[in-house]
Amino acid sequence: MRFKRILLKLSGESLMGEKGYGIDVNRLNDYARQIKEIHDLGVQISIVIGGGNIFRGLSGAGQGFDRVKGDQMGMCATVINSLALSSALGMVGCKSRVLTAIRMEPIGEFYTKWKAIEAMENGEVVICSAGTGSPYFTTDTGSSLRGIEIEADVMLKGTRVDGVYTADPEKDPTATKFNDITYSEVLSRGLKVMDLTAICMCQDNNLPIYVFNMDIVGNLKKVIEGENIGTLVHK
């Protein structure tokens, strides 16, 4: 097995599936089954999920929302997605625990590193919601922070593309894929893997990032078993 403890970053937008807004139950259930599949292999799993399928603070600020309140709305959106994922995991027989970066018991328990690690070691999937709990930070940065805190072997960034390319493959047909790339090269080329703060945090703390297509069922297990289906970002 390639990784023992992972931080899985899921895209809120991907949860929309074909719907264009909100949560596509079929996509949600696909994710839950894939997560259970690797959990059954003995992988310790912590998850951060975005909220862009419901509300994105930065785009809200562009429409006249106060940035801090907009980001707080985005944090609440991640909690909704986290509860949905937790429910879907329960339906497939996989225990999970929702932790929140902002106090909101009984919806979720207040996050601490030790609580997250203890839950993973007890066989629960940990879902870390509400980002960092502070405005001006994305869920990408929240993922980097949580991945570093829980001492994950890797951050698995599940997206709708199968890795990191020289340009956006959805817009540029000549874009070519990297099998692996350094943090420095990602930064110098201005590649949109994650936001700058998240990349720099991973670089400073030597947390590798593996970018892969989560929307193809079975890919998560392939990554865990060592198949090279994405791009590794490393030192």
Tell me the number of structural domains.
1
Number of strands: 11
Query: Largest sheet at a glance?
Result: 9 strands, mixed
* Radius of gyration, taken over Cα atoms and rounded to an integer in Å: 17 Å
Query: In one word, what is the shape?
Result: globular
Specify the CATH class: Alpha Beta
Mean pLDDT: 95
Low-confidence stretches: none
Q: What portion of the residues fall into strands of 2 or more residues? A: 15-25%
Note the total helix count: 8
Please state the structural category.
Answer: alpha/beta
- CATH-assigned fold name: Carbamate kinase
- The CATH architecture can be given as 3-Layer(aba) Sandwich
Order of helices and strands: EHEHHEEHEHEEEEHHEHE
The CATH superfamily turns out to be Acetylglutamate kinase-like
Helix content: 25-40%
Strand order of the largest sheet: 4-3-5-2-1-6-10-11-9
Distance between the termini: 22 Å
Structural summary, described in words:
The chain is an alpha/beta fold. It has one domain (5-234): Carbamate kinase (3-Layer(aba) Sandwich), CATH 3.40.1160.10. Helices cover 38% and strands 20% of the residues. The chain contains 8 helices and 11 strands. It has helices spanning 25-39, 57-62, 67-91, 113-121, 139-149, 183-189, 196-205, 219-224; strands spanning 5-10, 44-49, 96-100, 109-110, 125-129, 154-159, 164-165, 177-178, 180-182, 209-213, 231-234. A 9-stranded mixed beta sheet has the order 4-3-5-2-1-6-10-11-9, sandwiched between helices. A two-stranded antiparallel ribbon has the order 7-8. Helix 1 crosses helix 3 and helix 5 (139-149) packs parallel to helix 7 (196-205). The mean pLDDT is 95.
